């Protein structure tokens, strides 16, 4: 049987009384000398399995009333109240009234609440002795009876402390310091025998790099653990307030805790109040309020928000999440983009490139070592066909290299011949073997093809401003045999009609690491690559970014890696699968010239359209850019728009590619955001001041100032979340929300020429810093003027 305490009262002496009583009760129950008394649900008590939890003074009293407390007066609860409102203030008054009296130091007590009736006590105790200074009589008259009566009671009763003794004893603890030592020897002895309970709420301090959200979460976790230790509640469910009016954060746990208590608590609100009473002392929370549904609204001290914004504006940088949030600095490898040589680089690869780049940027920003790997499809059986086609269709290709700008057509022609011409087919197959055997001429042609493709891919990377290191499939070729050998040694390979297969539980098909003709395919390369990355490179975090269709393939590769013992518990292996890009008709996306899909054209089209819209704005006087600046701005905004349109969708969903939507100046688009950033920059420019160096007071007075500053403080949480779940759309949503808050702020708060101009400018500056950091993480360039 476990006897635990849940203090329900915020007042210290009442909680102390319950705590000591509970501790003693637990001792006694453990010894078997007392059985837990029945409780009444309205006491707010909790019985969970074997645990008896004392939740409040009424229950403590009820526990002891029937047997242990030898007192005729039935209203034991009154004792608690009496000692709260009469006794304790009297002790305090006693201390305050006399210098040099027998009275010694006593901690300051709560304000006096007058209450006349303490029938139980008045009847039980004797009047104050003579010899006490007259002026003290009134006060003394209230503590003396307890002490004298208790001393007398203990003289006749020398039994082990009962729960009643505990109740009396705690009051005595408060009264004793007021009397000279030795005045009440028996009471002193009793007090010495009571269990000591430390009631001070442990104070919590925010870690230097702990985000406000994390700190508040930790604060509530501690409060819940104190208030409801028996529940071992896992998640305080702290989030930003649904409505800014009520505060910054809300703790949503009370409702579910109330349900888990199965009727033992009075209401969700009572649960919320119990949590509030248990919040550790801290420098962070300004106030809390409990909503009728129980959740606890929390307002941070404005100085905290203000200081954060000031430091961002001053330093021009936003803190990144600490490495400790990831278990230290990680060796990450992100496998993304990865188009295939001589095949079209389609919008799927565009998604992989855009999402992958943001994932890399976020992880780099967090301080990890990040390898950006382009797993180019530059090996495999199609090369037999391509080489043969090149040789026969362009026999003088070495002297006169063909200008194959459109490799896709080249690929299709080769494929046509391959399917139609058996002789060509045989030649092609033989050519794969010579290529793989290292025949110099085959390799030369292969290289030529790769170079041609690479040029085309690089145009896309250049427009997108994405850095990648090419480690194509061919890079792993030599590692494959050793990898298969190792897998065989580890008993993971089974032979199926000559093919080397790896069966993994819960998958309907195996990974084929060597085909029956001895050839190596996609699975073979990925087996060697995953081993190389984990073992040779020592990476402890691998991320692969492809369409969702390949999800199972990668899960199988990861399971194989685990089965082969190439991972540790802390190694993260993740596949990020994304959905299909569709045309407006809902079908898989194709660019206008249906035959060939040139991603470069697709990207450039956005710029062309953007330029047209900027030119219109210039004509309408809405924009003051000069002609050469219009071109530059169109490129920044156009490419940014394509990226943002992709990134702001949840990766797993399909989306319809729409220039009109992505280039819209309103709503959650890059165009809107870049405009709103430029507007911000122009306010700062117009001030003519060196804003980061302005001397400012508190930045957050007006509610809109506060909401903006609070939003700024959430950036670090968003970055951490994206680093952990690879959902760049979170960052986009954040940026959009921030920008909305900024608009609200400048709408309601005049910046230039206002008495609070300096403060407001600093807030603008901090917003600018955060927005630019967010753009950078999304791989979007920004402009200071549009
Ligand atoms: N080349 C593949 C494709 O176009 C993507 C490669 C992904 N990475 C890998 N290690 N398999 O679908």
From TrEMBL:
Listed SMART domains: Arg_tRNA_synt_N, DALR_1
Keyword entries, A-Z: Aminoacyl-tRNA synthetase, ATP-binding, Cytoplasm, Ligase, Nucleotide-binding, Protein biosynthesis
Keyword Cytoplasm: yes
Keyword hit for DNA repair: no
Main location class: cytoplasm
Subcellular location: Cytoplasm
Enzyme Commission number(s) of this protein: 6.1.1.19
Coiled coil regions, renumbered to chain: none
Pfam families in the cross-refs: Arg_tRNA_synt_N, DALR_1, tRNA-synt_1d
CDD domains noted in UniProt: ArgRS_core
MF terms in GO: arginine-tRNA ligase activity; ATP binding
Reactions accelerated catalytically: tRNA(Arg) + L-arginine + ATP = L-arginyl-tRNA(Arg) + AMP + diphosphate
GO-annotated cellular components: cytoplasm
One GO term (biological process): arginyl-tRNA aminoacylation
EC primary class: ligase
Domain Arginyl tRNA synthetase N-terminal: 214-299
Domain DALR anticodon binding: 673-786
Description of how the protein assembles with itself and partners: Monomer.
Family membership noted in the UniProt record: Belongs to the class-I aminoacyl-tRNA synthetase family.
Protein name according to UniProt: arginine--tRNA ligase
Organism per entry: Chrysophaeum taylorii
Lineage, broadest ranks: Eukaryota, Sar, Stramenopiles, Ochrophyta, Pelagophyceae
């Amino acid at each position: 049987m476990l006897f635990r305490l849940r203090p329900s009262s915020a007042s210290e002496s009442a909680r102390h009384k319950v705590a000591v009583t509970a501790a003693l009760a637990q001792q006694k129950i453990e010894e078997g000398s007392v059985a837990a008394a029945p409780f009444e649900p309205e006491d707010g008590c909790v019985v969970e399995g074997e645990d008896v939890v004392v939740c409040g003074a009424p229950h403590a009293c009820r526990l002891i009333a029937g047997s242990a407390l030898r007192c005729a007066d039935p209203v034991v609860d009154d004792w608690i109240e009496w000692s709260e409102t009469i006794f304790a203030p009297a002790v305090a008054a006693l201390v305050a009234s006399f210098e040099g009296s027998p009275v010694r130091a006593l901690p300051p007590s709560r304000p006096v609440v007058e209450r006349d009736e303490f029938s139980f006590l008045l009847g039980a105790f004797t009047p104050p002795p003579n010899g006490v200074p007259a002026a003290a009589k009134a006060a003394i008259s209230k503590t003396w009876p307890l002490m004298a009566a208790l001393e007398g009671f203990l003289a006749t009763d020398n039994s082990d402390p009962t729960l009643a003794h505990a109740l009396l004893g705690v009051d005595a603890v408060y009264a004793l310091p007021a009397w000279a030592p030795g005045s009440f020897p028996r009471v002193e002895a009793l007090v010495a025998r009571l269990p000591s309970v430390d009631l001070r709420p442990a104070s919590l301090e925010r870690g230097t790099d702990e985000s406000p959200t994390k700190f508040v979460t930790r604060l509530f976790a501690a409060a819940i653990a104190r208030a409801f230790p028996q529940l071992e509640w896992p998640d305080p469910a702290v989030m930003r307030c649904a409505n800014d009016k009520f505060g910054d954060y809300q703790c949503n746990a009370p409702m579910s805790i109330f349900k888990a208590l199965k009727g033992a608590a009075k209401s969700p609100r009572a649960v919320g109040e119990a949590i509030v009473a248990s919040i550790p002392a801290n420098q962070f929370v300004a106030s809390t309020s409990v909503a009728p549904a129980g959740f606890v609204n929390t307002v941070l001290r404005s100085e905290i928000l203000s200081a954060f914004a000031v430091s961002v504006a001053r330093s021009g940088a936003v803190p990144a999440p600490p490495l400790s949030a990831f278990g230290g600095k990680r060796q990450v490898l992100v496998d993304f983009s990865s188009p295939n040589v001589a095949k079209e680089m389609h919008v799927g690869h565009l998604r992989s490139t855009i999402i992958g780049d943001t994932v890399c940027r976020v992880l780099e920003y967090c301080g990890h070592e990040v390898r950006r790997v382009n797993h180019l499809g530059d090996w495999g059986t199609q090369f037999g066909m391509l080489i043969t086609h090149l040789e026969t269709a362009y026999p003088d290709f070495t002297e006169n290299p063909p200008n194959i700008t459109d490799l896709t057509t080249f690929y299709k022609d080769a494929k046509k011949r391959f399917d139609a011409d058996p002789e060509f087919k045989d030649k092609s197959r033989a050519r794969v073997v010579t290529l793989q055997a290292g025949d110099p001429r085959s390799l030369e042609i292969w290289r030529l093809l790769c170079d041609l493709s690479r040029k085309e891919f690089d145009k896309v990377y250049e427009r997108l401003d994405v850095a990648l290191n090419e480690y194509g499939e061919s890079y792993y070729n030599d590692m494959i045999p050793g990898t298969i050998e190792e897998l065989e040694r580890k008993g993971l390979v089974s032979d199926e009609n000559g093919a080397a297969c790896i069966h993994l539980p819960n998958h309907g098909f195996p990974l084929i690491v060597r085909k029956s003709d001895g050839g190596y395919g996609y699975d073979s390369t990925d087996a060697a690559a995953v081993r190389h990355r984990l073992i040779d490179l020592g990476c402890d975090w691998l991320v692969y970014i492809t369409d969702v269709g390949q999800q199972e393939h990668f899960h199988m590769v990861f399971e194989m890696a685990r089965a082969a013992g190439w991972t540790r518990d802390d190694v993260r292996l993740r596949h990020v699968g994304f959905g299909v890009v569709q045309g407006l008709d809902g079908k898989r996306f194709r660019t206008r010239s249906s035959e060939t899909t040139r991603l470069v054209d697709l990207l450039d089209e956005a710029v062309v359209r953007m330029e047209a819209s900027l030119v219109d704005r210039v004509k309408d006087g809405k924009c003051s850019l000069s002609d050469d600046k219009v071109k530059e701005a169109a490129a920044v905004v156009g490419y940014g728009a394509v990226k943002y349109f992709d990134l702001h969708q949840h990766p797993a969903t399909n989306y319809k590619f729409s220039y009109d939507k992505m280039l819209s100046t309103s709503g959650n688009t890059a165009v809107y955001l870049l405009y709103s950033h430029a507007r911000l920059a122009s306010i700062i420019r117009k001030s003519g001041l060196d804003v980061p160096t302005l001397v400012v007071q508190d930045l957050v007075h007006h509610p809109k100032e506060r909401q903006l500053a609070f939003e700024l403080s959430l950036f670090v949480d968003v970055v951490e979340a994206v680093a952990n779940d690879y959902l760049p759309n979170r960052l986009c949503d954040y940026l959009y929300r921030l920008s909305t808050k900024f608009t609200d702020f400048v709408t309601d708060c005049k910046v230039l020429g206002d008495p609070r101009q300096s403060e407001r400018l600093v807030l603008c500056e901090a917003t600018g810093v955060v927005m630019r950091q967010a753009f950078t993480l999304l791989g979007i360039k920004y402009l200071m003027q549009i």
